[in-house]
Amino acid sequence: MLISFEKVWKTYGRGEARVDALAGVDFTIDRGEFVAIMGPSGSGKSTAMNIIGCLDTPTSGRYGFLGVDAGRLDRGRRAILRNLYIGFVFQGYNLLPRTTAVENVELPLIYRGVQARERRELAMRALAQVGLAGREHHTPAELSGGQQQRVAIARAIVSTPTLLVADEPTGNLDTQRSHEIMDLLTGLNRDIGLSIVMVTHEPDIAAYADRTIGFLDGHIAYDQAKAEAA
Ligand SMILES: Nc1ncnc2c1ncn2[C@@H]1O[C@H](COP(=O)(O)OP(=O)(O)O)[C@@H](O)[C@H]1O
Ligand SMILES: [Mg+2]
Which residue in 24, 34, 68, 190 is deepest, having the highest Cβ count within 10 Å? Predict the structure, then answer.
């Protein structure tokens, strides 16, 4: 088991201002799964993603990640878990400007203490994996949105994480580019067994996942496996 939520609550504020962003949520995700998370604005998706990515901890209940009680780890230990096991992709790419694609992809390896020559080699390989061979020395401003998101995906997978956490990865892209990015993510899930948890608002994007969990008011409204094509 990769992820387990057991009666997870996340409460912000107190008294009149109290908000239960998550109100006793239970689910598990196995290694190798590709899960979409859907739900209206304010339903608790980002709160759940922050816990899944070990960026935040539950107010109560248990968050298990790879068998570790990650919700009870301090900031520093959660940072180590993230560094070793989790890659992140965001709607807005979050690349360093005026910094080439290959240098952006090398960043997580610098934090890991990988030496320069090996860093460059691994980053070049990751860029080839996302279809950006030949674009390694372009800066974000010299790349399209779809290409920038590919750089961000390369940066997320260069340290061979177990889990990819993607928050609306196609939210800034047109339809064609969105489907290309989803083909890339589906391929990574299938070919290297990368586990993926992805938030999306679009049903046709969620349809790429094997399973969709729907949030509503801090609860799970549905949890559905993809219907197999006949
Ligand atoms: N840092 C915070 N402080 C106070 N309330 C918050 C905070 N983060 C989220 N919330 C509240 O928790 C609820 C769930 O938010 P969120 O997880 O961001 O939903 P979603 O990502 O589905 O839009 C919302 O009512 C939101 O206003
Ligand atoms: Mg959100």
Answer: 34
Q: Where are the domains of the chain?
A: 3-98+154-229
- Which atom of ligand 1 is least distant from the CA of 10? 12
Determine the Cα–Cα distance for residues 149 and 173; give it in Å rounded to an integer. Answer: 9
Distance CA 170, CA 202 (A): 9
CA of 9 to the centre of ligand 2 (A): 17
CATH class of 3-98+154-229: alpha beta
Closest-CA residue, ligand 1 atom 27, reads 42
What ligand 1 atom has the least distance to the C-alpha of 48? 17
CA dist 209 → 33, 198, 204 (Å)? 8, 9, 10
Predicted TM-score (pTM) above 0.90: yes
Residues 143-178: pLDDT tens digits?
999 999 999 999 999 999 999 999 999 999 999 999
Return the residue whose CA atom lies nearest to atom 1 of ligand 1.
12
